[in-house]
Amino acid sequence: MSASTKDKLMEDLKQVINDAEALTKETAGDLSGRAKEVRDKLAVRIKDAKGQISQLESVAKERAAEGVKETDRVIREHPYESLGISFGLGILVGVLLNRK
Fold first, then answer.
1. DSSP 20-35
2. Average pLDDT, whole number, for the chain?
């Protein structure tokens, strides 16, 4: 799954949670037993979904931090190679951008 797909999925899930919360608020006046039961179940599901979203976001942040640390380690272990690669990529991008 690509990062943009995951971001879109997270945003969609957050929107569904917001809609479900709005639904529970809208139906708060309905006093029937079945409506109250469904509303209570929905509230529990909303709480669980929020917890899972929070957990997924923290895992994503941890993975990103690990990637940054690993990149920093590699650059520090191979500074000249890193500079050479950066220089070469810069020249390549410059040439490609200046082409007509």
1. HHHHHHHTTT---HHH
2. 84
